[in-house]
Description:
By secondary structure, chain A is mostly helical. Chain A has one domain: Helix Hairpins (Orthogonal Bundle). Chain A has three helices and no strands. By secondary structure, chain B is an all-alpha fold. In chain B, helix 5 (98-120) packs antiparallel against helix 8.
Amino acid sequence: xxxxxxxxxxxxxxxxxxxxxxxxxxKRNLIxxxxxxxxxDTGVNMFLISVGYIRRGTAPIxxxxxxxxxxMVDPVxxxxxxxxxxxxxxxLALALALAVRFYKTYGTLDLRKAKELRW
Amino acid sequence: MRATVxxxxxxxxxxxxxxxxxxxxxxxxKTEIGDYYxxxxxxxxxxxxxxxxxxxxxxxxxxxxxxxxxxVAALGLGAVLATAGGKRGRSGVxxxxxxxxxxxxxxxxLILLFxxxxxxxxxxxxxxxxxxxxxxxxxxxxxxLSSPGKRINESGASLTESxxxxxxxxxxxxxxxxGTHxxxxxxxxxxxLNTLFSAGIIxxxxxxxxxxxxxxxxxxxxxxxxxxx
Amino acid sequence: xxxxxxxxxxAMLTAAVAALIYRDLxxxxxxxxxxxxxxxxxxxxxxxxxxxxxxxSIGAAxxxxxxxxAIRRTKRYEE
Lengths: 119, 229, 79
């Protein structure tokens, strides 16, 4: 129980990163690969936020008087992750546009069937 | 073969990452710069949301780069999807049900209003330009789903986007001549804490970011929905 | 509290595994949308409301819509 209390968010972040990597390494369908990329992205963001958490801390917003500055969670990882989420959606949209273009050229989404890209 | 190699690679990476994760304590304070921001953000920028004061106050130049990345990605998406034949409109889309099209008439202005609320109050409450822009883009997505024939006004969207981008850069350049003389320096009065007209240039920049992100993401959805067979 | 968080993490990982094993890409996209939604709830528990809003509005809504549009223009089933 104490282990779970300490590491449950790390387990979630690590699990998401592992599953995302597994999808990228094993699957061959392009859209499935991009889904794996999005899950990996969420996992990394989850890890950064859980590193910045301080036990019994409050959100870093002085929304009412009486909030103490020393009981707040770290704002720097949150600002970083805010950036990362927006960049993530830009990358996903560009990757999906490339996948649509790939389907138009080769008539398939399977990487094995594109002769020029075989490895 | 590929699955085996993948699993072996994953096991190696997983063991390494797991060991390094166990060495990072959960729930303990770690950085000193975070403490500095929390202590001084209210005096330095006038915003009560510390995350906002980091994103558009201390690291506003970083955010300008981020907005540029989003712009270049939207541009690249348009270039990848464009073909010589030009746009032909959307074919083979079923008309939406009555509930969706009637609900959209009622919900569209409310969602726009909510998005505008999120990015104008970014320095006071959770939220900001990026979240508000995404909410505005989802309002346009709802329009596309409910009436497939409708198109975004392209010249209006690109005008909004360029003007808001120019406002961001112009505010940054004004900081060179006014205030404390560096790029994106605050030159407007900071006002009283926890009021709407406070925090100097932060609400102006967040409004510009909100409009820019909203029109860009709506344009991305529009470009992807076009049939260019 | 810790039990609720553990159940949410478990549900999130289950949704991620579902996104891995579904052959129907539309179902996989909905599962990854569920991952983003549960992650945004966890971000809220980690005292990051800004990030929770961004993840819910961008990660869960817009990304799913973009995926669905792309699947409509390509193929639905993974062979």
